[in-house]
Design a protein that fits this description.
By secondary structure, this protein is mainly alpha-helical. Helices cover about 75% and strands about 5% of the residues.
Length: about 475
């Protein structure tokens, strides 16, 4: 799967020199093939997912002298994140079909390598390999923002790179510290293997807390957590549409995945020690992100701040150490990726037609674009947590699980749902209703390519809202393991 994306990226770069259209088709075929591989494998094997079951576990020696192995494995959590990566990857290529007109080959090279890095992050079970993929997804995303972004793209790309690279270097230091401590405890048997490092005895002393914070800071910067969130609105608002889709739908999820996969299992005692503070910061993010979203006039910045608010629920749920809340967190990762990705896609479609993202210069667009208005209504309702759509299931379970642990913070967090209704309805009122702005030519409604993008996301968000049980079944083993810690 990862190889197809890496080779496909190089092929796009080479093909584009002769035919830019063939380059786009090459990218689409590569992403579709990479998406179908795990799906077909799963349907053929229909594994029983329970307890500690790993669906695939692939391991070969890489640099045995330093205990580094090429170890990839997939369980239920990895599988659902890979499905999300495949879906949004296909849609990111389709979003770029008309938007990207220069340096097409290098653009799709970066897009596919970003997806390969994200896919690798979700399946890497060697900490050296995990860090390698963590960096692989960072550099191409920097180029996507810096070259194909809007007017302030350079500053946004620099800020994105500095924030995420700082967190990555802290994580590297923590990985090395864990590597040496484990080796000393095991008679000089040094290894970066995740399953071996799980047996490292750390407890809740100062050393464990500092190592844990190195991992945690890297992951909450990606999440992002207030006050480490300031790179996000700039990166989102300046990135091309596909870049925003991948940032919101996938890159933020790597932070949450890292907390669930690495921070809690490797440092259970140290994580429990800071759980109260982490939940508090999550609630601060929920309220603060919602208030800032309501204050924005730039449509993409508005949607970007909603991500800060929604990811606050993830932090609240993860550090509840509650099975119900953790199930809700996994649903939140999927549903936020779908609903916010759709809102960014809509923002890109509107920018393409109106040449502005300022919602004060929009208004009354439902008359000219009734289909786009209806689609926007679906995802605005999903964002504010309307029942029958996936976000409702996620936030309801997180609040229900967190309430058992900390009722006060859960009640305050529930105010975020009220505020989400305000900023969500403001999008509809300012963009599609109200006074019609002076437009020389009425903008075109949804095209066939855009219908494919939005229909896929609509089906996904409704399916997750009506039938969440398959996801719960897939991730039940991972959730039970984390709660048992």
């Amino acid at each position: 799967m990862i190889s197809i994306l890496l080779i496909g990226g190089v092929a796009c770069w080479l093909v584009a020199q002769r035919d830019p259209l063939a380059c786009k088709w090459t990218a689409l075929v590569a992403v579709v093939a990479a998406f179908l591989l795990p799906v077909v494998w799963y349907l053929r094997h229909t594994p029983v997912v329970d307890g500690n079951a790993w669906l695939i576990d692939y391991q070969v020696n890489w640099i045995p002298a330093f205990g580094i192995g090429f170890h990839l494995a997939m369980d239920g959590l990895s599988f659902v994140m890979i499905l999300l990566t495949g879906l949004l990857g296909i849609l990111a290529v389709l979003c770029s079909w008309r938007e990207i007109r220069e340096k097409t080959g290098f653009y799709f090279f970066n897009l596919l390598w970003t997806l390969a890095g994200i896919g690798g992050v979700f399946v890497a079970m060697d900490l050296f390999l995990f860090y390698f993929f963590w960096e692989v997804m960072l550099v191409p995303m920097y180029f996507l923002i810096a070259i194909w972004g809007d007017f302030n793209r350079r500053n946004a790309a620099y800020k994105f790179f500095i924030f995420t690279q700082t967190g990555g270097l802290l994580m590297l230091l923590s990985i090395l510290a864990l590597y040496f401590i484990h080796g000393q405890q095991n008679n000089g048997n040094y290894t970066f293997d995740y399953f071996a490092l799980l047996n490292t005895t750390l407890g809740n002393n100062a050393t464990a807390r500092w190592i844990m914070l190195g991992f945690l800071i890297a992951f909450v910067i990606k999440l992002p957590m207030v006050p480490l969130h300031s790179w996000l609105p700039d990166a989102h608002s300046e990135a091309p549409t596909a870049g925003s889709l991948i940032l919101a739908g996938l890159l933020l999820k790597t932070g949450a995945y890292g907390i669930i996969r690495f921070v809690l299992p490797l440092f259970p005692d140290a994580s429990a020690g800071i759980a109260g503070w982490a939940m508090l910061l999550g609630v601060v993010g929920i309220i603060y992100g919602a208030l800032l979203a309501y204050a924005q006039t730039d449509l993409k910045r508005l949607v970007a701040y909603t991500s800060v608010s929604h990811m606050g629920f993830v932090l609240l749920g993860v550090f509840s150490f509650n099975q119900m809340a953790l199930q809700g967190v996994v649903m939140q990762l999927l549903t936020h990726g779908v609903s916010t990705g759709a809102l960014f896609a809509l923002a890109g479609m509107l920018k393409e037609r109106l040449h502005t993202r300022d919602i004060n210069q929009m208004g009354g667009l439902w008359t000219a674009m009734p289909h786009m208005g209806a689609l926007a209504m679906v995802f605005v309702m999903a964002s504010l947590g309307l029942p029958m759509l996936g976000n409702f299931i996620a936030e309801f379970l997180i609040l229900l699980g967190a309430f058992e642990v900390n009722p006060v913070l859960s009640v305050i967090a529930s105010l975020g749902l009220v505020l989400s209704a305000l900023y969500s309805l403001r999008i509809m009122q300012k963009v599609f209703f109200g006074q019609i702005q002076t437009i020389t030519d009425p903008p075109a409604d949804v095209s066939a390519r855009e219908w494919i993008i939005m229909a896929s996301l609509t089906i996904a968000i409704v399916f997750l809202g009506l039938f969440p049980q398959p996801v719960f079944n897939l991730v039940s083993g991972v959730v039970e393991q984390v709660v048992r810690l």
